[in-house]
Amino acid sequence: MTATEVEGLDLAALSGYFAAHVPGFAGQLTAELVSGGRSNLTYKLTDGRSTWILRRPPLGTLTPSAHDMGREYRVVAALHGHGVPVAAPVALVDSDVIGVPCAVVAFVPGSVLRSEDDLASLSDEDVRRCGLALVDTLAALHAVPSAEVGLADLGRPDGYLGRQVRRWYGQWERVRTRDLPDIEALHERLVVACPSESGASIVHGDFRVDNAIVDPDDPARIRAVVDWEMATLGDPLADLALHLAYAHPAFAAVLGGSAASASPRMPTRDALVERYVAASGRDLADLGFHLALAYFKIAVIAEGIHQRHLRGDTRGDGFARVGDTPAPLAAAGLDALRGRS
Length: 341
Fold this sequence. Notes:
Helices cover 40% and strands 13% of the residues. The chain has eleven helices and nine strands. A five-stranded antiparallel β-sheet has the order 1-2-3-5-4, sandwiched between helices. Strands 6-9 form a two-stranded antiparallel sheet. A two-stranded antiparallel sheet has the order 7-8. α5 packs parallel to α9 (269-280), α7 runs antiparallel to α10 (287-311) and α8 crosses α10 (287-311). The mean pLDDT is 92.
């Protein structure tokens, strides 16, 4: 398959769209798949002069609300220039162009730290500084006034936690491929333990180190946060807890066997929590519940990837062990509720 024949894209149709809607477009697009299969597919496009990033939903059957390109583009456009590093918005492509909606943003040069191998060239101090800078960025996002950037209607923060528990269990019922008793037990205990929201803010919904582009010369400089399709208004502690939960060793299999977020070289949970409190001033009461909910979400995400892999809808390598991860993640969630994590 050539650069002008890329699975998941109709480059002729996209070239026509760019000619009509993107100023300075120089001609026929070529593309390469940057990443794909686990979440939305990401492509690097070029006309030989300019470069863009296009995101589209994964191939195959989609889970409702999980791959919302319109939401992703709207959030990026609203946050651009407001203290949170994001790529410059370019266009939201309607589904009538290639069959699904797509979000196009400017290409941001830099490094993405996906695996422990990607961390190998960095000193321990640079890894630590990067981890702390990510938490600072998360706190900055949670401080953005949603109404002032046009996102007051992005979500309904009241009752957010209860809806999250229900929504993710609904996702579980759609993607499950087998019975996992700890998933069922975790869901039941989350329902009982669900607290009131600690507050309301814009939340990313999938904040981790490999959803950021960092400066190659200074990994503590975050050039852009990416993958905003799950952003909403909700409890900021849920966002923080998900970031912390991505450090669980079982999560590595979701990213093909090695995850920078799960590296023991990253700052400890206590260090990240201390940094977030210092940057945000928030009270982290009920963090155990938020961690349990985070592990539940990741377990469901992993099962969804496993289901797509069994159907043959994933692309790339590293999916064979994803199905092993939901059970230990659910167990970690139960431990968090018991105060053991």
